[in-house]
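in:
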């Protein structure tokens, strides 16, 4: 008891109080550390939520796929719509009666063709007037009977013609085969006159130039492309020309006229522009639509 009484009692109490305070402080320091440790766990939970949402979305998408397939099956089951076929020139002409060509047809064709290609002044010079035309074929004539009608004085005219590299009468058609057909039809009209074939098939242009230079020919039958090429090369002169007959009403197997074929129409316009219309204005050439 003496030893115990020898120690200062208040110092033991102070030490015990100080130790309690230190323990409380250490506990408080531990608590925030524990709190900070729990915070990342909350963040992990937040990051896990979008993954769950994605899984839910994937499940929803997988559930939605079968209805789309069913919709596609329903569409495929429906019969496809039929497209309307565009009518061609052949289809239109097959259901319509053929009409004989008239001067207005050629006038409109020339106007429309040169509308966007020439100036206003040039278009006026290329204008096809009513006075340029002979009577047109009413679809009752053969070539010989039509030529007899438009050239009643042919026998006298063909005797007066003595110029080389030129013809008095030009018949313009769409092809080489049609050229041969028309030459055969000239038998009862031409008399002593000579006819020459003017097309590109199997005949070189140089050979035709030499042929025209050597002899005197009264009638030329051919395609507008070769005729205009001969005029350009001065292998064929238009000085003696008096009649230009267009094989206007004839149709091929597809029921197309000469002017319905773009290439032939272009060549024809080139031929008219090369000097034919100028001589028509001088009243030296007349145009007939056969």
């Amino acid at each position: 008891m003496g030893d115990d009484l020898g120690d200062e009692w208040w110092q033991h109490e102070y030490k015990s109080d100080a130790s309690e305070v230190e323990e409380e402080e250490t506990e408080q320091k531990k608590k925030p550390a524990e709190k900070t440790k729990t915070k990342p766990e909350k963040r992990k939970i937040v990051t896990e939520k979008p993954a769950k949402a994605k899984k839910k979305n994937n499940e929803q998408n997988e559930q939605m796929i079968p209805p789309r397939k069913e919709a596609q099956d329903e569409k495929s089951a429906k019969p496809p719509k039929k497209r309307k076929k565009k009518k061609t020139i052949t289809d239109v002409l097959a259901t319509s009666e053929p009409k004989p060509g008239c001067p207005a047809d050629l006038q409109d064709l020339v106007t429309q063709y040169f509308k966007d290609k020439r100036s206003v002044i040039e278009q006026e010079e290329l204008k096809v007037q009513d006075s340029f035309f002979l009577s047109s074929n009413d679809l009752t004539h053969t070539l010989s009977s039509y030529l007899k009608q438009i050239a009643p004085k042919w026998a006298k005219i063909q005797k007066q013609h003595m110029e080389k590299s030129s013809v008095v009468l030009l018949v313009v058609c769409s092809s080489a085969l049609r050229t041969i057909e028309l030459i055969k039809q000239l038998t009862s009209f031409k008399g002593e006159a000579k006819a020459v074939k003017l097309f590109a098939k199997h005949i070189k242009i140089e050979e035709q130039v030499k042929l025209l230079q050597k002899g005197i020919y009264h009638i030329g039958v051919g395609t507008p492309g070769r005729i205009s090429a001969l005029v350009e090369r001065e292998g064929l002169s238009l000085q003696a020309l008096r009649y230009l007959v267009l094989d206007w009403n004839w149709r091929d197997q597809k029921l197309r006229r000469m002017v319905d074929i773009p290439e032939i129409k272009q060549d024809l316009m080139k031929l008219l522009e090369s000097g034919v219309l100028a001589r028509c204005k001088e009243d030296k050439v007349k145009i007939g639509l056969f």
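note: The domain at 98-289 is CATH 3.40.50.300 (Rossmann fold).
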